[in-house]
């Protein structure tokens, strides 16, 4: 898939995100829109997966540690062929496979359930460690939020990733700078993330614009330093692609009404 | 009588299990000497992962490993494994129903001198409350081995509650086949039925002996599986004994006593009921014998409570 196709796909996914959340009447548009390129690039250019065989033991693994951004994840999985795109309309409905946060018991393609922040990186470390243990060559990708890095467990997991030399693990930080209650550094300072992540042993790659698919691809394609986990620290914009949602903490967990949905879809339609 | 701690038996059983099943891996959080997973590490250094003093991460790493088909046994003290990492167990093991075995040692007050900060009396209530969690507390060394093998054979999360202090190893007729969810009647009786698990099984047998000397016939039932509860066994004893009792070395709040009481009332049975356990209070430092007496959990004290009820 070339860059233009990926850009168009990201636009489709953003439109799905807006439609899904609007129809559900609740959900998390801000972070779903900020991580769209990150998820799309991983699933459409990196991962060895077969939607017809979602439990293939040799498949690459993905963990959405920031599980509240499930709408983006579901849209990516649907477009990748794990389930029908039409099913996206069932988000957050009773008996839907598309739970408010990803449920691996229900939805094919979801490698593990997430939603409680701070735990996905540990789960991904476990998957990567299992690959080493079983001498399998599958790769594990995990997307975490920046606010999520306030959870101490994430740093426990980072320590373990370095200790066990998990060069089959890629941690992607969706660094949009915002969390529910406001800017990260007003809520709880993250400090110098670059230095912290380097000090924890990562091969660190910083992206000035994590919503630029080319930058994301370059980082994902960059060769791995043997014996070190990779971390892509991706500067993104929360609410990316919808002008009134961009860089607004207020759109962390709020559904657009019908009019806002229409406006958002028009804007997205006109992009790319 | 031979004495052995269930944590010791756990470490030994892991080696045996590890030889039979190469999918078994063990994770510990810097307590491998105390939990006895060190025994497994000595034989299988490449299958033992020390995750450092970071229990929350350990639980979820085990979860991730299980998704690749491994069978992780995760160990720490009950206080840190079951309490500190509770939400990890709930959301990243039980909710996705991952195949992780949580074998936590040093449960209850029989931790002894380390004191109340390390005496986990809440784990039974916590683990019972999680949907789909199997909760097992073996009474002795042999049963621990059976429980370890049974846990490995089952698909899904299992909590194994293990003790620091040596407990009597049951012999002869007391050795029963182990089936998850099926209580074992260790001795029958008509006047009262006493349900116990773990360290309290030995104390309960002693209580039954003391009462037998006074002409009272007390059944002792080993409820090694606290969840799922063997309700049929409980109701059958309600139909033949006027007094039912529960003895547990855990908080009475949310423990087996409440589970049995609920099963009785729901089943329309109303026997006289005696619940023995740690009341709404924390533990403290002391020798195991001193603590057992302090909290009213010795065989003699159980016998006294039952005699009064009879």
Mind sketching the topology for me?
The complex is a heterodimer of chains A (272) and B (310).
Chain A: H1 3-24, H2 29-34, H3 36-46, E1 61-64, H4 70-80, H5 120-134, E2 140-145, H6 152-163, E3 169-175, E4 178-179, E5 182-183, H7 184-187, H8 193-199, E6 203-207, H9 213-221, E7 230-235, H10 258-270
Parallel strand pairs in A: 1-2, 2-3, 3-7, 6-7
Antiparallel strand pairs in A: 4-5
Chain B: E1 3-4, H1 6-20, E2 24-28, H2 32-35, H3 38-43, E3 48-50, H4 55-66, E4 71-77, H5 78-84, H6 86-94, E5 101-105, H7 123-128, E6 134-136, H8 141-153, E7 158-161, E8 167-168, E9 184-187, E10 192-196, H9 199-212, E11 218-222, E12 225-227, H10 231-238, E13 243-251, H11 256-266, E14 272-278, H12 288-294, H13 299-309
Parallel strand pairs in B: 2-3, 2-4, 4-5, 5-7, 6-7, 10-11, 10-13, 13-14
Antiparallel strand pairs in B: 1-8, 6-12, 9-11
Helix pairs in contact in B: 1-8, 4-6, 9-13
User: What oligomeric assembly is this protein in?
Assistant: heterodimer
In which order are the strands of the major sheet of chain A placed?
A: 1-2-3-7-6
Query: Which stretches of chain A are poorly predicted, pLDDT < 50 over at least 5 residues?
Result: none
H/E element sequence of chain A: HHHEHHEHEEEHHEHEH
The rounded distance between the terminal residues' Cα atoms of chain B is 30 Å
CATH topology of chain A: Rossmann fold
Strand order of the largest sheet of chain B: 3-2-4-5-7-6-12
CATH H-level homologous superfamily name of the largest domain in chain B:
Thiamin diphosphate (ThDP)-binding fold, Pyr/PP domains
Q: Would you tell me the structural class of the helices and strands of chain B? A: alpha/beta
| Number of beta strands of chain A | 7
Query: Can you count the helices of chain A?
Result: 10
Spatial shape of chain B:
globular
Which architecture of chain A per CATH? Answer: 3-Layer(aba) Sandwich
């Amino acid at each position: 898939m070339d860059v233009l196709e990926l850009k168009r796909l990201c636009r489709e996914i953003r439109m799905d995100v807006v439609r899904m959340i609007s129809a559900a009447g609740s959900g998390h548009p801000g972070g779903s829109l900020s991580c769209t390129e990150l998820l799309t690039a991983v699933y459409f250019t990196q991962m060895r997966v077969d939607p017809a065989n979602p439990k293939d033991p040799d498949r690459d693994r993905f963990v959405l540690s920031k599980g509240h951004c499930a709408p983006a994840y579901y849209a990516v999985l649907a477009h990748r062929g794990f389930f029908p795109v039409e099913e996206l309309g069932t988000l957050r409905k009773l008996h839907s496979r598309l739970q408010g946060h990803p449920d691996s018991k229900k939805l094919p393609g979801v490698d593990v359930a997430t939603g409680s922040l701070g735990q996905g990186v540990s789960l991904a470390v476990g998957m990567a460690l299992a690959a080493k243990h079983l001498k399998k060559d599958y790769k594990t990708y995990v997307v975490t939020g920046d606010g999520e890095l306030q959870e101490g467990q994430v740093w426990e997991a980072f320590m373990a990733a370095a200790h066990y030399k998990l060069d089959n693990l890629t941690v992607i930080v969706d660094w949009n700078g915002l969390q529910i209650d406001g800017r990260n550094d007003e809520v709880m300072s993250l400090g110098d993330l670059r230095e912290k992540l380097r000090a924890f042993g990562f091969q660190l790659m910083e992206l000035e614009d994590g919503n630029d698919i080319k930058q994301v691809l370059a980082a994902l394609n960059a060769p791995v330093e043997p014996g070190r986990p990779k971390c892509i620290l991706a500067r993104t914009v929360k609410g990316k692609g919808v002008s009134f949602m961009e860089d607004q903490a207020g759109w962390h967990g709020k559904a657009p009404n019908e009019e806002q949905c229409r406006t958002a879809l028009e804007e997205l339609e006109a992009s790319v | 009588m031979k004495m052995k701690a269930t944590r010791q038996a756990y470490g030994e059983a892991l080696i045996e299990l590890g030889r039979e099943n190469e999918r078994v891996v063990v994770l510990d959080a810097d307590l491998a000497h105390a939990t006895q997973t060190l025994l497994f590490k000595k034989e299988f250094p490449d299958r033992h992962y020390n995750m450092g003093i970071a229990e929350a991460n350990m639980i979820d790493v085990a979860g991730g490993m299980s998704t690749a088909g491994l069978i992780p046994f995760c160990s720490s003290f009950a206080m840190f494994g079951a309490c500190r990492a509770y939400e990890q167990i709930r959301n990243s093991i039980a909710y996705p129903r991952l195949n992780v075995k949580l074998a936590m040692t040093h449960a209850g007050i029989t931790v002894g001198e380390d004191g109340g900060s390390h005496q986990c009396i809440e784990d039974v209530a916590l683990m019972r409350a999680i949907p789909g969690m199997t909760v097992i507390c073996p009474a002795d060394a042999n049963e621990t081995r059976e429980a370890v093998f049974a846990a490995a054979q089952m698909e899904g999360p299992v909590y194994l509650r293990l003790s620091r202090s040596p407990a009597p190893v049951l012999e002869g007729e007391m050795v029963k086949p182990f089936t998850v969810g099926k209580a074992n009647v260790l001795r029958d009786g008509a006047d009262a039925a006493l349900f116990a698990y773990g360290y309290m099984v030995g104390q309960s047998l002693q209580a039954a002996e003391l009462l037998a000397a006074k002409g009272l016939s007390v059944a002792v039932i080993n409820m090694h599986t606290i969840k799922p509860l063997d309700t049929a066994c409980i109701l059958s004893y309600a139909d033949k004994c006027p007094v039912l009792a529960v003895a547990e070395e855990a908080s009475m709040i949310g423990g087996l006593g409440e589970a049995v009481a609920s099963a009785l009332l729901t089943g329309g049975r109303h026997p006289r009921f005696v619940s023995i356990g740690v009341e709404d209070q924390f533990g403290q430092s002391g020798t195991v014998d001193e603590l057992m007496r302090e909290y009213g959990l010795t065989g003699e004290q159980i016998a006294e409570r039952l005699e009064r009820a009879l």
